[in-house]
Amino acid sequence: MSDFQYLTPGKPAIFKDKYVTKVTECMKPYKKGAKADIGIIGLPASKSSISPSLAAEAPKTIRNALNAYSTYSGERKHDYKDTTILDFGDVHTHPTKLEETTERLYISVKEMLQTNACRRYIMLGGDHGVSFPSIRAFQEYFGRVGVIQWDAHHDVRNVEDGGRTNGTPFRSLLEGGFLKGEDLTQIGIRDYANALEYHEYVKSKDVSVYTMDDVDHNGIVPIMEKEIKRLSQQVDFIYLSVDMDVVDQAFAPGCPAIGPGGLTSRELLSSLSVAASHSKVKAMDIVEIDPSKDVRDITSRLAAHVLMCFMYT
Mean pLDDT across the stretch 16-36? Predict the structure, then answer.
C-alpha cells in the first residue's frame, strides 16, 4: 500500500479517464524478441540544415504530442487501442562529424529492420538529410523502392557547395543508385522555392513532379491515387517522406523554411490517408520541424496526426 494518498513518485500527475486510451499508452520500448504493428525510431540530426535548425529536438516533441490524442476514430467508428507500437528510441548522433552521423543513422535503421519486429515503420527526423540513410537502408533490405515526397523543395541541391545537407537527400539517393528517378514522386513543390537547374535535374531523371498549381487544379487525392497505383506496379515497396514545410506556414509555423501557398493540414492528412492505405507502403519519415520556432506545438501536433493517419489506416 502506498505511503501517500495523492502523491505518485516517479509518475506524472495527469488525469485519467477510464474510457479513453491515449496513443502513448500503446507504445512500448523495444525489447529483443518483441513484435508489434508499428515501429518508431528517432533520427535526431539537424546539424546539416542549410537554415539554422533545432529539428533534432522534434522526435521528443512529436512523441509528447501523441499523448494528447486518443486511439478512437469517430470517422471510421473504430478504436485502434489494440494497434501495438514499439519505440526503438533515438539514434546517438556524432557531436561534430556529419558523415559519421549519417552512417550511424543508416546502421540504426538497418538494425531495426533486421529485428523483423514490425509490419510498418516510422522515422522521426531531424532535418530532411536523414531520409538519405533511412531510404538507403530500406532499399537494401526490401528491394526496389518507390518514394512519395511531400515537399516545397526538390531537395536535389549540388553537393559541391556544401556537402550533404538537408537540401541534398534525393540527389544522393538518385546518384547513389538507391532510387530510380521514375520511382520518385514529388508533391507540393512550391513557387519561388527552387532553382531552374534543380527543376531541370529532376525532370531529366524522369521524376514525377506535382506543383501546388497542379494540386489546385487536379486535387491532392486524385493525384495521390494516380501515383500510388503507378508506383505500386513497378516497385517492391513504397516509402513516404513528409517534409512538413510542404504545409502552408499558417498550419505549420514550426518549420525552418516556412512559406505561404502550401498545403492545408487537411490536404496533407487526406493525401497521407490515401497513400498509407496501400499494402505496399511499409515506411514513412517525417522531417523539418523545429520545436524552437513552433507556436503551441502546432506543427508537432500536426505531425502527430500524420503519424496516426499512417498507423491507423
Answer: 96
